[in-house]
Amino acid sequence: MRSIRRFLLAGVLLVVSVSLGLSSLVGYLDASHELEELFDARLAQSARITDRLLSDYLLHAETLPPAGTVYEDWHGGQTPATPAEEQDEEATALGHEYEGKLYFQLLGAGGQLLLRSPSAPGNPITRPAPGFATIAYGDHHWRIFTLHDLDTDRWLIVAERDDVRGELASKLALRAILPPLLTLPLLLWLLWRLVARGLRPLQQLTRAIGQRHPTNLSPLTTADKVVELTPLTGELNRLMLALADTLAREKQFTSEAAHELKTPLAVLRIHIENALAADSVQSQQGSLYKALKALGRSDRLIQQLLTQARLDNQQAAEQTPLALQHLLRDTLAELAPLALEKQQQLGLSADIEAPFYGQPVLLGLLFGNLIDNAIRYTPNGGVIEVSLERLPGQYLVTIGDNGPGLDEQQLPRVWERFFRGNPQQGDGAGLGLAIVRRAAALHRAQITLDRAPAGGLRARVYLPAPPAN
Q: Is 400 helix (H, G, I), strand (E, B) or coil?
């Protein structure tokens, strides 16, 4: 499994190491180049000074020294100490051991050797050409600078062994980049500690979740508050609150459903027992008819319970284009047989085009339950009127009847589950309006209940209408 800690640590350490390595390499190359430039400038300056000294020497010398060696007493009869004699110190009070790796040669107009330093070869090391050059002589490469005196047509060659220059340049360049390289382990350790410290709130959150009991759905809290984890913690808390609310509703719903199912099942059992104990066919048929009626009520209750449970777990309604006027006509057509059984008048006034976006099944449940309740609680021969009209920014669906209606004290409670305003009328289970309210909430609709002008109950449903074209 992928580890965020390992990924961050490896990524940060790799980036820092590569960046520091590249910067060190660039610094080393740049320092080496600048030191080479400095050495070349020193070599040219040494050539000019040596040329002046040799010119004075030739001016006052009566004869040239044997083999052209001059300044044999350069050190005043003393030899610079070796590193071993000076405890590995290359620079001593008498000079530097690298002096033997520097020399000069003075050539005449014909290229013959006139003068040279004690450490210089006895033969010209190269054909004279003005300027800087790198040549191979003996077992080493040499960096030379040749100075041409136009007045005397003499050539002065000042040479320095290339490995000496490289060694000095490398040492100086390495000493320049050595501090960053030495601090790299400390920097990497600090970065490791920093990443570990930065991920500590995530570990705290993980432990807080892992140590929780499944029944503990209270909000999560961590000791360290960080901006990046606040949205995650907030979403987890929101999810747990929603889950706690869902579990509470399901617990209450299960308890209420179990209670409500006891009555029709008990009634059904009594009627069946009466039918078995009947002493006549007529009495037996009466008991069976009552049992069938109780079975129908139980079936209706179970269907409503399943519908209510499904709606409670639904978070949003599907957005499907539909026409409200057609939906209302279809709903009335399905319920028309119930109204005909009770010889009721079922009317619809929906002459407008009402495009809408919603879930047809849920809207069918919404209007179907309202109309079904009006049919069930309106006496035989009653009137149920359904109308559809458009208001500014919304639709209004009104369902009114001339039944007994509800008392003012009962209206606030009609939305409660299993509440029945008129238990003696109809065979409902008290879940219809709870289903209606949930379906309306999923469509951002509002519902009001009051007394109709004809004396019955009036339900008004306000649905958001799309902008008019």
A: strand
